[in-house]
Write a structure and sequence with these properties.
Largest sheet: 7 strands, mixed
Strand content: 15-25%
Number of strands: 9
Strand order of the largest sheet: 4-3-2-5-6-9-7
CATH class: Alpha Beta
CATH superfamily: Vaccinia Virus protein VP39
CATH topology: Rossmann fold
Structural class: alpha/beta
Shape: globular
Distance between the termini: 48 Å
């Protein structure tokens, strides 16, 4: 126990000395956790695990995206609150899911600076089709979304529930990452439900903290599963990815 506490304190001290982040912390995943992520995505999508590993590797090796994120961060008036190192964490899973599932329309709520949006856009560009609609209340959100990544992305500023209800296109892939209360999360799922295509995937970035997606999946006759992050050399315990999908016999 003493050794464990000392390790956590040491990791926290290094983070305090080197990181500028104060929210939406970024980190790498442990090697074992990355392997678990690949197998989890393989089981959800039916893709071979080797293919999923290749998708994850694509994002790892995307030097254009990394350079873009660093450059846009340095140009932003919020550069004092963001690190220069690009770390994707569970967003590796977002990317691999989009590559495997090939959605035509993604809705993401909670844009923040736009790191996840750029990851989604990079996957859509690699797929060769599809658009991302990302939603946030903050008029300053999405400063990373520029260049080729903006070409496949529509940024909507406003209340996420109302914005979802106003959307016209069918939705193949939905991610809740906005206000993390169970009530708001459920309101988003209910708002998007009528727009979901038969094979749509519904994700939550808050499934480690609430049962909103699990209960919504049960109520609507879907399967639910969860992947838990293991951050590498970071004090934050991580969150994860919850996903609800149609049952095979639906």
């Amino acid at each position: 126990m003493v050794a464990h506490d000392a390790k956590v304190l040491g990791t926290s001290a290094r983070w305090l000395a080197t990181s500028r982040e104060h929210t939406n912390f970024t980190y790498d995943l442990t090697p074992r956790n990355r392997e678990h992520l690949a197998w989890w995505i393989s089981s959800i999508t039916g893709s071979e695990v080797e293919q999923v590993r290749a998708f994850i590797g694509e994002l790892d090796d995307d030097s254009d995206l990394e350079s873009h994120i660093v450059q846009m961060t340095m140009r932003s008036d919020r550069k004092g609150l963001a690190d220069r190192s690009v770390r994707f964490g569970r967003r590796l899973g977002w990317y691999a899911l989009v590559r495997a599932l090939q959605p035509d329309h993604i809705i993401e709520t909670g844009t923040d600076k736009g790191l996840g949006s750029c990851v989604f856009a990079a996957a859509l560009l690699r797929n060769g089709h599809g658009r991302l609609t990302t939603m946030d209340l903050n008029p300053s959100a999405g400063y990373l979304i520029a260049g080729r990544y903006a070409e496949v992305t529509d940024l909507v500023i406003g209340d996420s529930v109302e914005s979802i209800r106003s959307a016209e296109s069918p939705v193949d892939f939905f991610l809740h990452d906005s206000w993390h209360s169970a009530a708001h999360e459920l309101a988003e799922f209910d708002a998007v439900a009528s727009r979901l295509t038969p094979k749509a995937s519904v994700l939550s970035d808050n499934a480690h903290a609430t049962d909103a997606l699990a209960s919504w999946a049960e109520r609507t006759g879907r399967n639910f599963s969860f992947f838990r992050e293991e951050p590498r050399e970071h004090w934050c315990p991580g969150s994860g990815i919850g996903v609800a999908t149609e049952k095979a016999d639906s």
